[in-house]
Design goal:
By secondary structure, this protein is of the alpha+beta class. It has helices at about 25-30, 35-40, 75-80, 105-115, 125, 210-235, 250-255, 260-275, 280-295, 305-315, 320-335, 345-385; strands at about 5-10, 50-55, 60-70, 90, 120, 120-125, 130-135, 140-150, 160-170, 175-185, 190, 200, 240, 280. About 35% of the residues are buried.
Length: about 375
């Protein structure tokens, strides 16, 4: 993933909480003295509006317009006025329907909720931690907010999978304010994104009640924590036997849509963590995908990452659909290679397709179990958001 211009690690909602980073996270980040969440939010660049004008080429006069406003960073306006010509205060020039949502507007209400909501009778504000990442001089921001103790613990692992949310926004008109369920595996530092549907508030029109919005979202995250363990346990029972498949792990990920450089990393991690590299369960295959995306993805956070996150999540939450996708991609690959004659290669391809179909059929008995659990989870989400 592209390196941000600035990272801020935080622990605790504000300076009044005696919060500490979990040991596994502090070791990973190499941070001894994290900021508080409130401090980190207030240190983020903010935006204000100022007047826009255009130049009339016939008169060389500048004409102001009320149809657009410049979205600028106020501290950089000051630096520019003091002679710092290299400082660019401009973020964006949107239409007059654009509503600026500054960090405190969005995350200030979250601070209030975190002081009141609790996990195991401990206020969330005392166990929250995470990281804020700034891109494009702070005009684009993404953050992970996790809660120590709101987690999933797998047998044989000392470090938990810690639950939380990932959220962000930008001032360039590209990203509305968003939030979605998130988890980080302390065992391998892999991040699990898009664990809930993405909730979005656009910079256009009426701005809703952020406090109520955050209350509903945190309720969703607790539901995911309750169900994630069951999904993982079921996925561990579904194995792909690559000795009967017409390909190994790397091509499995490529057929799902991963580029070669990610497929290679995903397969390497999955094979290394499996009991045998020839028979790998769906949880380990999912973990391999999240490993590649967490540590080796070359693109940006946002839409370019989201498409691969959806593929990775399907391995865990929709294993039957994942194998069907592999089967269709393999069939299309055979058609593209296409030789109508029954050459040895063509026969091998047909045999390989038949093997994938057998695996797909064997998963149908599990599919109903996964579908019913997912349906129940979505129904609870809807109730939490109503």
């Amino acid at each position: 993933m592209k390196e941000p211009a600035c990272r801020t690690v935080f622990a605790g909602v504000d300076g009044r909480t005696d919060a500490q980073l979990p040991e596994w996270y502090a070791t990973k980040k190499g941070i001894d003295d994290p900021a508080s969440f409130a401090e980190a939010i207030r240190n983020l660049p903010r935006a204000v509006e100022t007047t826009v004008a255009y130049q009339n080429p016939y008169t060389n006069e500048w004409v102001e317009t009320e149809r657009f406003n410049a979205v600028v960073e106020p501290s950089r306006l000051r630096k520019h006025a003091m002679g710092d010509a290299e400082t660019d205060p401009l973020f964006h020039v949107p239409s007059d329907s654009y509503t600026i949502l500054n960090p405190v507007d969005v995350y200030g209400p979250l601070e209030e909720v975190l002081r009141e909501e609790a996990v195991d009778e401990t206020p969330l504000g005392e166990v929250m931690f995470g990281e804020i990442r700034q891109y494009r001089a702070g005009g684009e921001v993404h953050m992970d907010v996790m809660f120590d103790g709101l987690d999933v613990r797998l047998p044989g692992r000392s470090d938990p999978i810690t639950m939380g949310v990932t959220s962000g926004y930008d001032f360039f008109g590209g990203h509305a304010v968003y939030v979605e369920g998130f988890a980080q595996d302390g065992f391998c530092s892999n991040t699990m994104r898009s664990l809930t549907d993405k909730e979005v508030i656009k910079h256009v029109g009426d701005v809703k009640d952020f406090r109520t919005w955050w209350e509903h979202i945190l309720a969703q995250v607790e539901l995911v924590a309750d169900d994630l363990f069951e999904f993982i346990r079921d996925a561990q029972e579904i194995e792909i036997d690559f000795t009967v498949m017409p390909f190994m792990g790397e091509e499995f990920y490529e057929l799902l849509g991963f580029p070669s450089y990610l497929a290679e990393r995903a397969a390497g991690d999955a094979e290394a963590n499996a009991a045998t590299p020839f028979e790998i369960d769906m949880w380990t295959l999912h973990s391999g995908a999240t490993y590649a995306l967490t540590h080796f993805f070359k693109g940006k956070e946002g839409a370019s990452l989201d498409q691969y996150v959806r593929i990775a999540n399907d391995i865990l939450f929709n294993p039957e659909g994942t194998v069907e996708r592999v089967e269709q991609a393999y069939e299309h690959q055979l058609e593209a290679d296409g030789d109508a004659e029954e050459t040895q290669a063509a026969l091998a391809g047909e045999h390989g397709l038949a093997q994938i179909e057998r695996v797909s059929e064997s998963l149908q008995s599990k599919a109903e179990q996964f579908d019913s659990r997912e349906d129940a989870l979505r129904e609870r989400f809807q109730q939490a958001m109503s």
